[in-house]
Write a structure and sequence with these properties.
It comes from Parapedobacter koreensis. Keywords: Membrane, Transmembrane, Transmembrane helix. This is Copper chaperone NosL. The chain is built from 5 helices and 5 strands; from the N terminus they run αβββαααββα. By secondary structure, the chain is α+β, with helices and mostly antiparallel strands. It has one domain. A hairpin with a 2-residue loop joins strand 1 and strand 2. Helix 3 runs antiparallel to helix 4. It starts with 8 loop residues before the first helix and ends with a helix. 19% of the residues are buried.
Length: 198
């Protein structure tokens, strides 16, 4: 192994800590969607884990029935059967790359993690689009031209409900791990560039 291909100890430690943190994500909520309306002053919350849905799912399903949205069931999503394993694989990858400490592997991990993040967000948007647009034509409440797709991130008004979508604890851990990985890639690139000059 070439000496200039070995990353510094700080970056190796950061990658290993990120890998351990990703294992925690499996058991933590990754995303949350909050619904606020006058009749629910305390709000309603849908929590999305890597393997299940939680929060006031039954109440939200009851409300969705009136506007023709399909009910939410974890069994309907193949993502919940594979996502814990994918997250675990990335956790192992972060730890392995940190242990081996090669710059090339860090770059490869960054590309793979970035692609996973993009694919995950596109899949989530498609899931929201499907549930918000494919409505039961016999629903008790029908508003011509109205769709009920929640926002991917941020706030959106849906009839008398305000929907707020944002990462939960697990999602923020993902973001932090991605930022730290990007930092390691950039910092190692700077170190390699400076070593060539000297």
């Amino acid at each position: 192994m070439k000496r200039n291909d070995v990353i510094i100890k700080l970056h190796r430690a950061l990658l290993i800590v990120c890998g351990l943190a990703l294992f925690a994500v499996i058991a933590l909520p990754i995303w949350r969607i909050e619904l606020d309306a006058a009749q629910y002053p305390e709000g309603l919350e849908l929590l999305i884990y890597s393997y299940k849905l939680d929060g006031q799912v039954d109440i939200i399903n009851g409300l969705n029935h009136y506007i023709g949205m399909r009910t939410l069931h974890a069994d309907d999503f193949i993502e919940f059967t594979v996502l814990p394993y994918i997250i675990g694989a990335y956790g192992l990858a972060f730890i392995a790359v940190g242990a081996v400490g090669r710059r090339k592997l860090v770059n490869m991990l960054f590309v793979a993690f970035l692609l996973f993040g993009i694919v995950a967000m596109v899949d989530f948007w498609m899931w929201e689009y499907d549930y918000g647009h494919h409505l039961d034509p016999n629903a008790p409440i029908k508003v011509p031209g109205m769709a009920y797709q929640p926002p991917l991130i941020g706030f959106k008004q849906l009839l008398n409900f305000g929907a707020f979508s944002i990462p939960a604890v697990g999602g923020w851990i993902f973001v932090v791990c991605g930022v730290l990985l990007a930092y390691c890639v950039f910092a190692e690139w700077r170190l390699a560039k400076n070593s060539l000059k000297s």
